[in-house]
Design a protein that fits this description.
- The structure holds 2 protein chains of 2 kinds.
- Chain A is of the alpha/beta class.
- Helices cover 34% and strands 31% of the residues of chain A.
- In chain A, the strands form 2 sheets. Chain A has a 7-stranded mixed sheet, with helices on both faces. Chain A has a 4-stranded mixed sheet with strand order 2-1-3-4.
- Chain A starts with a helix and ends with a helix.
- Chain B has one domain: Orthogonal Bundle (Arc Repressor Mutant, subunit A), CATH 1.10.10.
- The chains are: A alpha/beta, B alpha+beta.
């Protein structure tokens, strides 16, 4: 069940502190909009170039320059893999980039992540995209986006939501309103990456008093689990 | 303060950076200095420090650099609380500290 997927991911708490002089670097904005705990401290002029301190459960595990991190994220991304001697900081950096657990984030932050998943599905243009909108009326404002996704790509789109509105029939989109009550508290998405599973991505978030707790992931196996759970209805 | 005390204080890159940071911010802590000096090193050498690297640097600060700079009257250091403050420096000495950082440039380690 979706709750189990969220529970499985709640582990260590990572915190990023960006030390910088001027405007937030790209990585800081990216972390913040993805629900990662990030704060900043100011450095005096003439001091070091910007850098990031990574803490796990309150302990420093790595310190790395912003330029180096942003270099790591330029394609092609070389992941540390299982090489020996890869420091904990790098491992955690990639863990955070691959899969982020968040709690108490607003709808706005989740929309940003959802847009990324939809955008990736659009660019790949093939494969299966499953989305739980809690209620079908929530889907109403998203209809134009999904109409574009369905008509301009070969995506197989499945929309899940409790039946409180009749959505328009759009070729390429299948609605599931039967037996989905148990998904109602969840905002969930799963895109399988189409022909390339390295492009898979997904998100599961549970709503509680207007705040969301959950995770987003690029791990194809986890995305598969989200997809299977939604598909089972 | 004798000139040779200032020269000794400025003899290592860690002490120059430490003094510069405290000079520009007025006050700091052992924890902040350990992080800032680690960050300064990795950001200028394109490397990464682990938690252990930072701990080692912190030990050097506590056992060597901070007491040494305090002895020479450049900083006020309280080992109990970890607080570090700039002592009242002659403007010439402050200028000298700034100059060493400028000369050091971004790539000196």
């Amino acid at each position: 069940m979706l709750d189990d997927l969220i529970a499985d991911r709640r582990g260590s708490e990572h915190r990023f502190t960006v030390y910088r002089r001027d405007d937030p670097p790209e990585i800081e904005t990216w972390l913040a909009t993805h629900g990662v705990a990030v704060e900043s401290r100011s450095l005096p002029p003439g001091g070091p170039p910007p850098f990031i301190e990574i803490e796990t459960d309150g302990e420093v595990v790595g310190i790395i320059g912003v330029e180096a991190v942003e270099g790591l994220l330029e394609p092609p991304i070389v992941r540390p893999g299982d090489r020996d001697g890869v420091s904990e900081g790098y491992r955690i950096l990639f863990e955070v980039l691959d899969e982020t657990v968040f709690s108490g984030v607003e709808r706005r932050a989740l929309l940003a992540v959802s847009r990324e998943i939809e955008d990736r599905a659009f660019r790949v243009g093939d494969g299966t995209l499953r989305v739980s909108f809690q209620t079908l009326s929530t889907f109403r404002s998203q209809t134009p986006v999904y109409r574009t996704l369905a008509t301009e790509t070969d995506l197989d789109i499945h929309v899940y939501g409790v039946d409180d509105w009749s959505p328009p029939a759009i070729p390429g989109i299948t609605y599931h309103a039967e037996g989905v009550e148990r998904f109602e508290p969840f905002w969930a998405m799963a895109f399988d990456g189409g022909p390339d599973e390295t492009r898979a991505c997904g998100l599961v978030a549970r709503e509680r008093s207007d705040e969301y707790t959950g995770f987003w992931t690029d791990d194809p196996a986890i995305v598969g689990e989200i997809s299977t759970t939604l598909d089972a209805g | 303060m004798a000139r040779r005390d200032l020269y000794d204080a400025l003899a290592t890159s860690h002490r120059r950076r430490l003094l510069y940071h405290v000079l520009e911010t007025g006050e700091s802590t052992v924890e902040e200095l350990a992080t800032v000096l680690s960050g300064w090193e990795v950001a200028t050498t394109d490397t990464m420090h682990t938690g252990e690297d930072r701990s080692k640097l912190r030990l050097h600060l506590v056992h060597n650099h901070l007491p040494r700079l305090a002895d020479r009257g450049l900083i006020l250091y309280d080992p109990e609380t970890g607080s570090v403050e700039l002592a009242s420096l002659h403007p010439m000495d402050a200028e000298m500290i700034r100059r060493t950082i400028e000369i050091e440039g971004p790539d000196d380690r």
